[in-house]
Write a structure and sequence with these properties.
Strand order of the largest sheet: 4-5-6-7
Strand content: 35-45%
Order of helices and strands: EEEEEEEEEEEEEEEEE
Number of domains: 2
Largest sheet: 4 strands, antiparallel
Distance between the termini: 28 Å
Number of strands: 17
Radius of gyration: 18 Å
Structural class: mainly beta
Helix content: under 10%
Shape: globular
Oligomer: single chain
Number of helices: 0
């Protein structure tokens, strides 16, 4: 995974006899720097760096009976310590920071039931305040990506459980509101348009 400035690559490794996350300069110079050390039975998966490269979000996967396998953690470079975030999921979250670093988006699955209303794409402010916003739900929603300006969130959504491989990109405007109306859908529920680099709208393929 690339750092925001493009100077570093973050990766998982079991070097030195202990699994964890490392980072190394993209040009290969210098030694790899250890960022985390996974406990026995855990796997650490890098997900996103904050825009200023000071905070790393990563998933901790642990197959423990009675425990949701994925938990999202953060590591602050200034103090070199990690702490858990209020995010758990049956599947990898694919967390990503907004361009201004004030929000992070992720996909969360709390149930094997694909129709579960608590399954989808969510956004929280960073640092977390307890506020939680869900992107307009399609059916099976995942893989959030922020637009460069940070005011729009694009994600994949499938409208039917029997056609989850056939999906469309969805876009939702992001408002700094502290209410449940933190998202304002820009697009009708039946379709999706994305703006090209030229500013024109184009339909996405199913």
């Amino acid at each position: 995974m690339w750092s925001g400035d493009g100077q570093w690559i973050t990766f998982a490794s079991e070097r030195d006899g202990a699994a964890g996350l490392f980072r190394q300069r993209a040009d290969g110079s210098g030694a790899a720097e250890r960022l985390t050390t996974a406990a026995t039975g855990e796997e650490h998966i890098p997900e996103t760096w904050s825009p200023d490269d000071r905070v790393l979000l990563y998933a901790v996967r642990a197959e423990v009976p009675g425990r949701v396998p994925y938990t999202l953690w953060m590591r602050a470079s200034a103090i070199g310590k990690s702490s858990p975030l209020p995010v758990t999921s049956l599947e990898q979250t694919g967390a990503v920071f907004s361009a201004d670093g004030r929000w992070f988006a992720y996909a969360a699955v709390q149930s094997e039931n694909v129709g579960d209303p608590n399954r989808g794409v969510f956004v929280q402010p960073f640092p977390p305040t307890g506020a939680l916003y869900q992107a307009p739900k399609v059916f099976i929603d995942f893989h959030p990506v922020w637009a460069a300006g940070g005011n729009e969130l694009v994600y994949s959504g499938s409208e039917r459980p029997d056609r989850w491989r056939s999906r469309r990109c969805r876009a939702a405007a992001v408002s700094p509101s502290v209410s449940r109306r933190g998202f304002r859908p820009r697009l009708p529920a039946t379709g999706c348009l994305l703006r090209s680099a030229a500013g024109t709208c184009c339909p996405t393929a199913a």
